[in-house]
Structures are given as structure tokens and as C-alpha cells.
TrEMBL record, chains A, B:
Family statement: Belongs to the kynureninase family.
Pathway: Amino-acid degradation; L-kynurenine degradation; L-alanine and anthranilate from L-kynurenine: step 1/1; Cofactor biosynthesis; NAD(+) biosynthesis; quinolinate from L-kynurenine: step 2/3
Entry-linked InterPro entries: Kynureninase, PyrdxlP-dep_Trfase, PyrdxlP-dep_Trfase_major, PyrdxlP-dep_Trfase_small
One Pfam assignment: KYNU_C
EC numbers on record: 3.7.1.3
Binding-site residues, pyridoxal 5'-phosphate: 97-98, 129-132, 201, 204, 226, 256, 282
Modified residues (N6-(pyridoxal phosphate)lysine): 227
Name of the protein in its database record: Kynureninase
Function as written in the Swiss-Prot or TrEMBL entry: Catalyzes the cleavage of L-kynurenine (L-Kyn) and L-3-hydroxykynurenine (L-3OHKyn) into anthranilic acid (AA) and 3-hydroxyanthranilic acid (3-OHAA), respectively.
Example of a GO MF term: kynureninase activity
Name of the encoding gene: kynU
């Protein structure tokens, strides 16, 4: 695809092309930020109309049973499960990724307190998404039991970090900034060899890349439904536990939704059997219901075709930037090897922030991540090859003509 | 109001009567369960249409700034504040009541670990809403620092329970089952005399009864927006901290939304100043946005007029049951004294569950709470005196004719 015409042809031959019609895409926009907030499924307005007007408005309290609100976390979790390499009864949709990380980490620590009680190290990566590190820090600070956080970085490899003093390894499968993807099976095996329990953050994986939690013998996983799964802004997150740990794990955010009989109003907490004990309080039903619209679409797509197109899109992006923006100080921070690449492509540029603002102003919406990183999310269900051509064309134009605002760059504002 | 005609007249003279037009009420229903799930504000469909179609669909990621999604927890918290006797900057809307209880309890414990480090008792009530107890149990179990839960019940009074070994007192202001309301100022004063920090659960108070957190010198409070505030099913909860503790409290669910600069992507957690450090992860924006529809209405009403009507409705309910259902084994469990009564009325009856099912089948929707309790929520913004008359009329008919199903009673199903 050396020309726009070749990209157009590729779009015509794309077996996933028709999925685009299932989403609303604002006119004049090339959306390369579906890894931050996915787009709107066309079915979501009608669904919200039903949930609000019928289930809430007409059904009122009866909808907890009649509209199966109470079962939503498990029912949607069961639907999501195949996209994670998980089975029914292993996933619930609930709360936020940060909170689910806390639950999974607490459950993993508790298992280790019984199995290998002397271990007090939790390993993660320095460039993990910050909330993962913050949740670990909060837990360590709260427990005051001598736990410490050890970070993998340029000085410390994974192999060095995961020693016999380590209780838990908490990693993002795909890095939010670089797009680097871990080999989940190999990394989990390495951890298990050392007696270490794994917690995987799948925020940038679910719906984006093939995930095989059971095949990888992973222990716990959490992730996000509002990125590649198009669940809506801040839609509730998910949490998975391996069948090995079911009915044996424990977590401290033990609210009534995780009780084995929530309406018995017992004084003592008794965890529900299975994954449901990861639930805590009453869930945001309108936001949660909308997740199904995106899931309906994701489940129609062949995940291997999605992966193939994702790699084709990112290969195209990388090659076009190489060919057409070679004169500019753009440094690719995403791995070139397919096996190590998620579904976004990132570049460093000294004026990364201002360039992204210029791109957004021209309708090419990616996002910026400190430090200096331009990040482009590639979502095969609604992006085509021509979109990539046009996005790089706009990037080249902005770079060639230096039409970014250096003042803006130095007055960075809050952006998500 | 000894007759239905008198009730009709009272409705005509009711200064709050016009509020009913702002809600959708299903035809043929008398809804006495607004203390479990409030009704649908008519404005909510249009609001959801905007949030989903415009803010999500058109604005996409830009709406975090352009539609002020990122500021919603604080902006809605500021709007809610006057209903709690709180000021701007003291409240955020976020997560669930259970999770916010955990945060408030952890913050209170941390303050006491510095002030009175030997104290290891947390006091609550045996008949508190179970999730409050479960969250305390989860925290105690997790900390493994010798904390214990002491429960107030028939054997142990509040005065006996709150001794010099107590760190935190966690109470529901209005009991979910009986409707008993604590004197917040007096109870807080009693706790403070003993050096005890208070956490108030306002689930059945916010929007239902006048609350004066600052006037009562309370320390922490949490509560619910989906009951009397009509925020929608499972809409996010709220949390408040006294200005005395602002910038001094700490909580372990320390996700990136509570960071002082979430987009700096720093490795170390640094709490935001003020109430925002109670935030954790990305919030369910559609559900959260709808809260404003209910708040808009609640803020138009004079809270003293709401209270006056609430008491008039519950007085009427109690008197009519007394007069018209005297032959039946109904035991009032709600206090007769106005100062000790929230905004619902509850009765025990040996066949409580089955009677409630029969009431619901006839369109009088209250709810059932173990053990044997028929619970009737009284929401002055959309209930009239005639509704109470008609509800008791239906109750009397069911009781007189014994038209409940004893088989159903003994095969109780899950109900919220």
C-alpha cells in the first residue's frame, strides 16, 4: 500500500469493513483514540432508552429481578469471557479497573500469606499505567506488614525482579504508552516457576488482541470495557479469577453484592461461591447495561481477523511514517515485532504535546502521554487503511509546515 | 384526615404537589419504594440522549474536558452539598456506598493510628445495613492488626459501646429497616467526648430528612444517590469529609483519579488536595450524569417542607393502619417520635413476605426486609395523602381477605 488508491482497494477487500456501519463516527474525524475511549455503538441509544424508560421508569424496583439487573455482572462477564480465553462463571463486570486491581492483588496476597507467608515483595513495571502502581502503594501503606514494591525498569529485568522473595507479579499485558505486549504464557510460567502469583491488567488487551487466560495458566486478571470493547465512558470494568483459585480466594472489599445470600441480611459476611465474591456494592446499571451493545459487536468479529487487521494497520502506520516523515525527529517506541505489539502505535517527539493538539484540531484524534509520546490507537472494527493513510498525511503536513503551537506545548493542560 | 375526601383536599393544598409532574410514575402504581430505588425524573431521557449521542458519540475522548466529565464528581458533589449541610469542596460523587465506607473507615482509622494508636475497636449496630458491617469485617480481616468490631444491640447501648478503646463509630443515620433516626449532633458529640471519630452512612437520609453534617461536627459521611435523590439504578454514591480533616486524611484505594496530577503519569502516588483524594478510578459517566436530573429537582424543594410532609405522610400511614387494620398482627417497628423517625414506615407481620408480594401484585409497591418486615418508603416529592389512603386500603383488603400465598411465603425468592 504505497498509495492512497492501494489503501482504498484494501478497504474494499477488508472482511471486517462492514463492522464500521455498526458504530456512530463523527463526520470529519479519524479516530485513533479507541484505546482510550471507544466509539458509540449505534444500538446504545435505543438500549439506554429501554433501560431508562422501561426498566427504570416503568419497572422500578421490580427490574432488579424482572430485568435481571442483579445478574448483569455475571451475565455480561459470561459474554465477555470468550474474548479473554475464559469460561462461564469466571468473569464479572463490576466497579473500576483500579478497584478490581485492589481486589485481585489482595486475593493474591492472601493466597500467598498461606502458601509462602515469608514473601513480602510485589513486582510491577516502572512504566506500568500509574494507577496500577498507586493501588499497590495504597495497599502496602495500608497493610503495614512489611510489603514492598519492586519495579522492573532499565536496571532490573523481569527475570532479575521475580525472585524467591516475591509474592505477586502485577503486569499490564499491553503497555498503555508503548504498546509493548508481554508473552502472557511465558511470563506466567516464569512467575510460577518461582512460586509467584500473577495479576494481569488487560486494559489495552480486551477486544484488541487475542487473550488466553486459561491457556496461559494465569491467576487473576482485570481490565476495562470502555476502550476496545466500546462500553461507553467509564463503563464498569471486569475481573477474572482462574478456576484453580475459585472458592478459595478472599478479598477485603466484601460488600453485600458478594455475599452468598445478600437478602438474608445476615450480620456476618459469607462470600458467595465463585467469581461473584468479587462484587461489592450496587452497580451503575445504566452504564453497565450499555456495555452489552459493544460486546454484541465484538463477539460477532473473528478475533484472529481483528488481530491480523490490527497488525496490518500498525505496520502500515509505521511504514508510512518512516517513508513520509523521515525528516522529523519521531522515534518509534512501539515494538516492530508482531508478537510484542498490542494495538496502538506510539512515537516520541520533542513537541509531542503540541503536535497532538494540532492533529486533533485537524480531526485526527489520537492522544498524548507523558513524556513526549504521540499515541495512536488502532481499532480494526471501525478504522480502515485509508484512514491510516489520511492520518499520516495530516501528521506529515503538520510536521513539514511546523504548524504546532510551541506556546501551547509549554502550557500543557489536563487531557485524558 | 379520617376520610379519602380529606386526603384529596390535603393533596390539593399541598405546597409540594407540583413536584410530582417532574417525575414519570407508572400508571396504576402507588410507589412506596423510593427509599430503595427512586423514580425516573422526566428530564433523564433527554439528558442520557445528550450524554450518549453528543458527549460520547460526537465528542468522544474530547468530552473529558469539553463536557467536563473529569469534573463531574466534584461538580455534582458541590451541588449535593447543601442537602447534607456541607459546603463546596467537601463532597464528591463516586463509586458505591460500600466502597466509600471502606475509604472513610480507612481514613478514620489512619487518623486514629496517629492520634490514639492503641485503640482497636470499631463500633457499629447489629441491625445496621449489612454491607456496612461486611465492609468493616473485610477491613479488619485484611489489616490483621488486632482490630475488632463491637456491635450495639439490645444488650449493649451506644453509651456502653463507645468507650476509651474505640477508634471509630460507624452508624447509619436512618436505619434501613426500622426507619429509626439517630440524633446526629448528640451522637457525634458523645463520640467526640470519648475521642472517637464518626462515620455516618446517609443512604436513607440524603434527600429524605434534613442533614447537617457541619452543624453536627461529623467527621466522615457516605451515602447513596439512587434512593431519595432519584439518581437512577445503582447511580454512583457520595462521600464527605469534614473540613477539619481535609488534606490530612489518607485512604488506601488510591487510584489515579485521586492523584494530584493524574496526567503527569508519575510513578509515586501523591494525593490531590481536598476531597478529590477520595476518588479512585474512572467513573461510570452515563450513570453519573443522570444524577443531576434528580438533584435539579431535589434542590428546588424546600427541605423543611419535604420533612414536614414526610412526617405528615408517615403519621397518616401509622394512624390509618392503626384504625383500619387493628385486627391484624401488624407490629410497628418505626419510632412514633418524630425526632427519631426517618422517611419510611415499617411493620412486622408473620407473613410479611407474602403480604408484600400480594401488595405488589395489586400495584402497591413497597418492599420486604428480613425478618418479617413490610417496609413503606415515603417520598414527599411524588407521593400524596390519597396515595397513602389507597395503599392502606389495599393493605386492609389483603389482610381482611387473607389473599396472600402462604406457599410463596415459605419459598422466598431473592428480592432487593
Amino acid at each position: 500500500m504505497q498509495t492512497r488508491a492501494a489503501c482504498l482497494l484494501a478497504d474494499q477487500q477488508d472482511p471486517l469493513a462492514s463492522f464500521k456501519d455498526l458504530f456512530f463516527l463523527p463526520p470529519g474525524v479519524i479516530y485513533l483514540d479507541g484505546n482510550s475511549l471507544g466509539v458509540l455503538p449505534k444500538s446504545a441509544q435505543a438500549r439506554s432508552h429501554d433501560v431508562i424508560g422501561q426498566e427504570w421508569g416503568q419497572g422500578l424496583i421490580r427490574s432488579w429481578n424482572d430485568a435481571n439487573w442483579f445478574d448483569l455482572p455475571g451475565r455480561l462477564g459470561d459474554r465477555l469471557a470468550p474474548l479473554l480465553g475464559a469460561a462461564k462463571g469466571e468473569v464479572v463486570i463490576t466497579d473500576t479497573t483500579s478497584l478490581n486491581l485492589f481486589k485481585a492483588l489482595a486475593a493474591a496476597i492472601r493466597i500467598q500469606q498461606k502458601a509462602l507467608p515469608q514473601r513480602r515483595v510485589i513486582v510491577s513495571e516502572r512504566d506500568n499505567f500509574p494507577t496500577d502502581l498507586y493501588m499497590i502503594q495504597g495497599m502496602i501503606d495500608f497493610l503495614q506488614q512489611g510489603y514492598e514494591l519492586r519495579l522492573i525498569d532499565e536496571q532490573t529485568s523481569l527475570e532479575q525482579a521475580v525472585g524467591e522473595d516475591v509474592a505477586v507479579l502485577l503486569l499490564s499485558h499491553v503497555n498503555y504508552r508503548t504498546g509493548y505486549m508481554h508473552d502472557m504464557a511465558a511470563t506466567t510460567a516464569l512467575a510460577h516457576q518461582q512460586g509467584v502469583i500473577t495479576v494481569w491488567d488487560l486494559a489495552h488487551s480486551a477486544g484488541a488482541v487475542p487473550v488466553d487466560l486459561n491457556g496461559s495458566h494465569a491467576d487473576f486478571a482485570v481490565g476495562c470495557t470502555y476502550k476496545y470493547l466500546n462500553g461507553g465512558p467509564g463503563s464498569p470494568a471486569f475481573i477474572w479469577v482462574s478456576p484453580r483459585h475459585q472458592d478459595q480466594f478472599w478479598q477485603p472489599l466484601s460488600g453485600w453484592w458478594g455475599h452468598q445470600n445478600p437478602f438474608a441480611m445476615a450480620t456476618e459476611y459469607q462470600p458467595a461461591s465463585g467469581i461473584r465474591r468479587f462484587l461489592c456494592g450496587t452497580q451503575a446499571i445504566v452504564s453497565m447495561s450499555l456495555i452489552e451493545c459493544g460486546l454484541d459487536i465484538a463477539l460477532q468479529a473473528d478475533m484472529l481477523a481483528v488481530r491480523e487487521k490490527s497488525l496490518a494497520l500498525s505496520d502500515l502506520f509505521i511504514r508510512l511514517v518512516e517513508e513520509r516523515c523521515a525528516d522529523h525527529p519521531l522515534t518509534l517506541v512501539t515494538p516492530r515485532e508482531h508478537a510484542s505489539r498490542g494495538s496502538h502505535v506510539s512515537y516520541r517527539h520533542p513537541y509531542g504535546f503540541a503536535i497532538m493538539q494540532a492533529l486533533i484540531a485537524k480531526g485526527v484524534i489520537g492522544d498524548y502521554r507523558e513524556p513526549e509520546v504521540l499515541r495512536f490507537g488502532l481499532t480494526p472494527l471501525y478504522l480502515g487503511y485509508t484512514d491510516i493513510w489520511d492520518a499520516v498525511d495530516t501528521l506529515k503536513d503538520i510536521l513539514d509546515r511546523k504548524i504546532w503551537n510551541t506556546k501551547t506545548h509549554h502550557q500543557r493542560v489536563v487531557v485524558t
